[in-house]
């Protein structure tokens, strides 16, 4: 028990001394630590670093990864340090970084630091800038960062296979001093495409066009976490794309400014307002906005096939076609790849009846429960949960104020409206 202020001061002094000693010991030992910033990759992690002789050291491990892409839907992917995308590398402009890369894949690999100015021999291109890192080997990359912004890393050996299986990650370089604006939330989303046959857990790396899973940070909704935002907060989202297609990402509930293509930041005059940001292959796009209105707001790719799961894209239209079951059987035999597409559209695919139909093992279904029935979107889709008090929110759906939800019109309201 502390009886007088002098004793209290002594106690505080001793504690501070102990804490600083502990800090010195830790720094000397080069303890691994997690970068301290608000930047987060929903569903992902950050790569720890340690300081050694004024250099920031990191350790990436290229390895096979069992990824839960959707609830109960597991994929045999490749990634880094147990995850796809790989953990976020974070450093600051001016830092010298030393990155150890251990190869635990069954084939060689390298790492290319996409967009980062490095010496030619650190650029990671197999055969051109270095020898491949053989399975079991650990290589060392070292360079000084004299730029800032949002960059990426990926292999430059057997790119088709390794990137298709999930090997990609963000490399965020924070500016040394304040530039532009400071958001309250700073999210990273890596866009991905996968071709995974129904019932299989193995993505097909040679697929070039016909993908059937589209992911934010290698997951589909509802495994992709929702983004928790407080009303009035300033939000930044950084999108990276190392897939085979561009992805126009549409944000509901706000108009955003496109503030950067990852390379530092556009001058304010060069920034522009938009509602959809197209993220080309091999590129980064950053957007910033303020969420003024509480609610559940969708954010998704606007290529409508990219918000579906497990969908075959070479089906025939049965809309308006009335076939009995014998005719259906005949059609199935006659037309290769013929599937049971709805005759009134595809909406019935999302119904609960469809969910009760037998389906292959390890298969991600089409719709998930929402506050008003089934949410049909999945794939490249998540929800921004904007709340006045996110701390009090139990993760449920937005409670709309009475009279603010679209509802059936009454007879009186539409009187005369439907007359010829
Ligand atoms: Cu897309």
TrEMBL record:
One of its GO terms (molecular function) is oxidoreductase activity. Keywords: Metal-binding, Oxidoreductase. Residues 391-420 are annotated as: Disordered. Residues 76-176, 207-315 form the Plastocyanin-like domain. The keyword Isomerase does not apply. The keyword Secreted does not apply. SUPFAM superfamilies: Cupredoxins (SSF49503). InterPro entries: Cu-oxidase-like_N (IPR011707), Cu-oxidase_C (IPR011706), Cu-oxidase_fam (IPR045087), Cu_oxidase_Cu_BS (IPR002355), Cupredoxin (IPR008972). It comes from the Bacteria. Pfam families: Cu-oxidase_2 (PF07731), Cu-oxidase_3 (PF07732). This is Multicopper oxidase.
